[in-house]
Fold this sequence. Notes:
Elements: H1 12-15, E1 38-40, H2 42-48, E2 51-56, H3 66-79, E3 84-88, H4 92-104, E4 107-113, H5 119-128, E5 131-135, H6 139-149, E6 156-157, H7 163-169, H8 171-180, E7 186-190, H9 195-209, E8 218-224, H10 229-232, H11 254-264, E9 267-271, H12 273-285, H13 295-306, E10 315-320, H14 328-334, H15 346-352
Parallel strand pairs: 2-10, 3-4, 3-6, 4-5, 7-8, 7-10, 8-9
Antiparallel strand pairs: 1-2
Helix pairs in contact: 3-4, 3-7, 4-5, 7-9, 8-9, 9-11, 12-13
The structure holds ligand F0G.
Ligand F0G is lined by residues 64, 66, 89-93, 160, 190-196, 245-246, 291, 293-294, 321-322.
Amino acid sequence: MAQGVRPGWPGILEVYRDFLPITERTPRLTLHEGNTPLVYADKLSERLECHVYLKFEGANPTGSFKDRGMVVAVAKAKEAGKRVVICASTGNTSASAAAYAARAGLEAVILIPHGYVALGKLAQAVQYGARIVAIRGNFDQALAIVREVADPLGMEVVNSINPYRLMGQQTAAFEICDTLGRAPDALYIPVGNAGNISAYWMGFTRYYDEKRIDARPKMFGFEAEGAAAIVRGEPIEHPETFATAIRIGNPASWDKAVRAAQESGGAIDCVADEAIAEAYRLIAQEGVFAEPASAASVAGLLKRHREGGVARGETVVCVLTGNGLKDPDSAMRLASEEALVVDGNPDAVRRALGGLS
Ligand code: F0G
């Protein structure tokens, strides 16, 4: 790969190289992922009487947190001489895999549940040139197929069962601590395949072990109610939620997620689609457009607050995992206001705005 000049934030392989399995032979792959904003949520903080920050992972190059793990997984696949990466995905993993594969000069094969991937994510995979196979089935079935076919075909699996993915995703926890100068008291995060909550816990634990922080946060993970396998204690054959990114009924990192919640004194819980939709709207009022699945973190915070589980003055971080632009259909479907269509002259506009002043 060309080693040209790279001004600005150099990406996570470079910035966090001491924490990642980088060798001299690892390609210096980057789309300058990471360094995402930690946005102070004024309105939510005031309403909940605590300090709420939004870690906006939608600001990553392909619009989701997946880029942090994908850059490591694809760089290591290339280092190992692989030519093709493969993944199952509810959309974001596939967009990220397709982008980093293109960047690294590898092929990407992606398996998606037909009809259940937000349009923006699909458009990304198409534009990045991935080979896309839409299965008549759900994410869990797609992942099972990937596990079966990858090895014989010599393809590298870049789902979060690939350990490099979680290593890369830890860096979001590092960034939060680096930005705040400490760990938050609690972290709220959506749970789908359960890799990300596990990665954050690894990250906080690593910083704690290296004495960069003196306490670790309580970890609160939230599944969608119709896909809450961990909460129910058994896989769900037909998971359902409008937050399609977390429409997953048999999370691959189930045990790790449970351990993160238990060891930290947190919990895995679930939130209803209506609560996700409400949080989706509240996040937008802070000026941040996140996709529906991301809003499960804020919906979870609101739920715990109602239950008396949030202390006054606490510092909490809600992870907003993906960009709202990926799923414009959800935004339009849930919108309370739509565009007024009027003739193109000032009078018509004045009339249309009559109610305002
Ligand atoms: N939020 C978004 C926007 C996601 O895309 C995902 C997972 C999650 C949360 C849940 O994270 O699986 O680590 O617990 N998306 C995967 C995908 C499954 O294929 O893009 P998790």
